[in-house]
Each structure stands twice: as C-alpha cells, then as structure tokens.
Design a protein that fits this description.
116 residues, mainly alpha
Length: 116
C-alpha cells in the first residue's frame, strides 16, 4: 500500500505523513494556554460532584461510544455555554470515547472560532 508523501510546513520544515511540525504544535499549545486563561474553572462551568454522579450513572447505562469503544466522556450534543437547563438536559447527552469527543469538539470549536 502506498504511503502519503511528506508535507512541507509553512516554516519550511519537512513533516512526515501523519506528523505535526514542532512549530505548529508549539503554536497550538500557546493558543490553548491563552484560551485557558480566560475560561472559567470546571466547577464554575457546572462540573461539580452532582455532575460526577450523574455522569457515572449515564455512562453505566450507556457504556459504549457509537464506534463501539468504551465510552469515557458524557458529551453535550448542543454546547451548553453555561446554560444550566441545557447542561442538565439528559436528552442532550451522548456517550463518547475520548478520541471521538476530543477530535469532534476541537473541529467544532475551530469552526466556531473561524465563523464557519
């Protein structure tokens, strides 16, 4: 099976297929650090002991991600953005594995940030 060709980063470095240029990884880490400074704490966003109990019960009843992997995250299908009615609406919850939660959410947040 043929392998993909290496890419050339904007900085000029050759990046192997499936790899990330160190300059892009550094820029992403800096962007995340800037965002995290402005973000309220998890507790202020509603992730309290009551959430931990509800999350555990939901995952026990819904143990698998749509891909078949064990679900480890309760995702809010519609981002709650601090709205506690949406936060606690169980019909808005879905069980996901960490991979699908993290990759999907990052894609969604990038689209929102770019106004797509």
């Amino acid at each position: 099976m043929p392998t993909a060709a290496p890419k050339v980063c904007a900085c000029g470095k050759v990046v192997p297929p499936g790899g990330r240029c160190p300059c892009r990884a550094k820029a992403d880490a800096e962007r995340k650090a800037r965002f995290d400074k402005t973000r309220p704490s998890a507790r202020k966003r509603g992730y309290t002991g009551a959430w931990d109990k509800a999350r555990a019960a939901f995952l026990k009843a819904n143990p698998t991600c749509f891909c078949g992997a064990p679900a480890t995250v309760v995702d809010h299908r519609i981002p709650h953005k601090g709205d506690m009615a949406i936060f606690w609406d169980r019909s808005n919850w879905q069980p996901l594995c960490a991979h699908h939660h993290n990759s999907g959410k990052q894609r969604q947040e990038r689209r929102a940030a770019h106004g797509d």
